Amino acid sequence: MIVSKKDIPNFLDKLIGAYDEVIAPVKKDDFTVFETISSGADAVLDAGNTKLPAKEVFFPQSEELFRYNVTKEGAKLEAPIDDKKKVLFGIRPCDARSVKLLDNDFNNDKYQDPYYLARRENTVIVGIGCNQPASTCFCTSVNSGPFDTSGLDVLLIDTGDAYVVETITEKGKLFVEKAGLAAASDSDRAAAAKVKEEAVVTCQVNLDGLKAKLDVNFYDPIWDKIHEKCLGCGACTYLCPTCHCFDIVDDAVDCNGCRVRNWDSCAFPLFTLHGSGHNPRSSNKERYRNRIMHKFKYFIDNFNEIACVGCGRCIKNCPVNMDIRVVLEDIRGSEARLDS
Ligand code: SF4
Ligand code: SF4
After folding, report:
1. What is the SS3 assignment for 140?
2. Which of the four pLDDT bands, split at 50, 70 and 90, describes residue 337?
3. What is the pLDDT of residue 77?
4. N or C: lower Cβ tally within 10 Å for the chain?
5. Is the CB of 314 within 6 Å of ligand 2?
6. Which stretches of 135-181 are assigned E, i.e. beta strand?
7. Does the CB atom of residue 310 touch ligand 2 within 6 A?
8. pLDDT value for 340
9. Distance from the alpha carbon of residue 323 to the mean position of ligand 1, in angstroms
10. Domain edges within the chain
């Protein structure tokens, strides 16, 4: 299948008519973010990755879990489930992979989150491969790549004047059938294969032996040094597509009685503060160590996956230029101490 770039606004307008919501990158100041669009002309598909990841589509920054109303007759609960039919259009493969990683947390043997699952089931994810990865991208070092299809239903490959369309899942197949796209010719397919071949991720991060090191270096003195520059602002965690810490609060003012889930961050001291006053991660060193351990050890222990997709947002946006690639190299190079 193929869609010409000049037909994309029209194509998106048709999707807007056929689905409850179409979410695509739009321009905001000097960057792009995902927003629900009301016109296909608003989508910006050639500006690289968005400033914020698309995790909010499935796991909103602030979300009402249920409303409660206590009367003489008892408590009445209303739980709003968002089952609107949506298309998430123009996501990059690393971010789509992050959604697949989040599935491990929100849908596993022990826990199934109905809010996340309803959004996930009702959203078609259409990605665009990255012809020119940024200098901060290191997706190929963390089991992904510029044309990784692992979290996608449909992949678009930019061949210049058109996108060649690959269907990945059954959901993607139904989406493409419904869209009624033209068939791609042999030369279109050859052009797409060439684009894939020529895309180069220049930044490689060597992670050999890192997990083995993290398994034994919880008390290594390297942690005393490595966090020193970090301000604990949490920007890296809010912008990271795989970070998913949250807090749950009851709100009796704004909504007259509701329970709300809000993003939180392991970079903040309050995140782990117990009611007793004890804080198991009371210092920035412990919090920064947790961020690295969670992505490169605990997530592997629990789900056999690295919780980083190499998108580079934490590198681009840290106010003090902490670079996770350098941190990982430093840890690999440090002398491992056996925990005692
Ligand atoms: S963005 Fe930088 S300073 Fe802020 S918490 Fe992350 S590593 Fe620390
Ligand atoms: S840790 Fe940094 S590079 Fe890795 S997925 Fe998160 S923001 Fe992207």
Report:
1. helix
2. low
3. 86
4. C
5. yes
6. 154-158, 162-167
7. yes
8. 42
9. 9
10. 2-198, 210-333
